Apolipoprotein N-acyltransferase
Amino acid sequence: MPRLDPASSAMDIPLSRSEPATLGWLPRVLLALAGGLLMGLPWLDQAMYWTAWFGSVPLLFALQGVRWSSALLLGSLAGVAYFSIASYWIIQFLINLRDFSWPIAALLSSVFWCFAGFSIGLSCALLRWLSTRLPTWDLLSFPLCMVLIMSVYPLLFGAYYAEPQAQFLMALQGVSLFGVQALDMLILMTGVLVFQFITGQGRGQRLGQLLALALLAAWFTYGLISLHHWDDLMGGWDVRRVGLVQPDDAVTLAVPEPPTGFSREYPPEMAAVERLAQAGAELVVWPEARYKGYFDHYSVRLSYAEKLRASGVSLILHDAERAWEGSQKLHFNALAYLDGEGRQRGVYRKMRLMPFGEYLPTFFHLPGIGWLTRTFFGEFLTPLEPGQRHEIFNVNGMRIVPKICYETAFPAFIANSIGQDAAGKVLLFVSQDNWFGETTQPFQHSAMSVVRGVENRVPMIHLINNGPSVVAAPNGRIIAETDAFAPAELLAAMPHSVSAGGSFYSRYPQLLPIVLYTSLAMLIFLALWRRPSL
């Protein structure tokens, strides 16, 4: 009788006759890490979007035949690899935030990557538990586990595998129907199809495979037709000239003084407004900034109004707002809209605040823990009040829906801001991403925003303090873009229609999540009534 491979024994395999256990511990670890890296590569370089479509295949090989407890470990390793490549820029953020040395910043970052990676571990554990009871349902159970566990896991924001697909326009169009989670499901389902094709498994899933292939064909057919339909449609739209000011200011926790030759009343950004107005801009936007003094000082508001009246251009600017409500002084992260006469026509207060940066979650207010968190984040932690409603800035027929930084990471929240009444709307995001240095983070941020624009079928503007700032059409085509990590002024010719805008997803953003959660609940219920496959 042959001796057992101790590595295989340690992995508790085999579990099923249909899943031969031929791999030892080391190959499985390497395959899990390779899967995480392939799934994460598009976050590092969006031109590598194609790796996500089969990136889960090595992970599926690693999981073949193991018990759920081993799947938890292997999935967590894949998750660490995925998040470390997708968010390596956390190291630079910590260095800029607290002036940590690189080794300390890397060590602290690894804590986050391990925590985040555990989400994929939980997904794989649930998958293996389901697979032992429902071995012919992997085409559905794998993407369901991966997508839904990630959606409920307590990360700072939703992590969607499909968001770095912003350059794959034919695949991207379908998110206007069901949102980015639908594309997540499709990418992960494709990985299962490839895995089954390579291994010859899934003989009991022929019907499922045919349905999956038909779904892929329908998705890409719709994508091809829709992409060209929107190109043709926009050919008859008006062109609106929007100016973007990208100052590339250095990050600082202190309130910065105006540069030499400028003042609070006349900052460098206002000089850019005058130049852009002369070039033909009808609206100019400034990015998220540390402090301008607009809300605090009458002299600043008066000067801005005079300059705008002289130039005849509208302005949307970001600033810290302090307001009295009753006897309490509240702080807000806000955007103000000034019309061509310099009159303030609207203010948007950020609704989704950044944990640890703009507010402290309840748990971290506990004695001892709150002190530790405040000590670590220091002045970066500025407690703010959330805004209470979405706003619309009506700018010469454009119905601009303003959002600030972190808010772009929430698809349903953005869809609700577009809603049923979407005609003529434009999504506007402003952010300050210099905290992350010259990394891929701002490119990732702008890609998220491109996906939000396609989900809701509206033009999209994302102005990033350090770039790359982008203007995108409702089908995701980039209309204009600045270089990253350099000052820039951009005059974009943005197609716009007062009667177009909105999508099935913007009207029903909760439809697919309800279907997905219901499907997973039914699979779990069915699995509880089935004995493991032996």
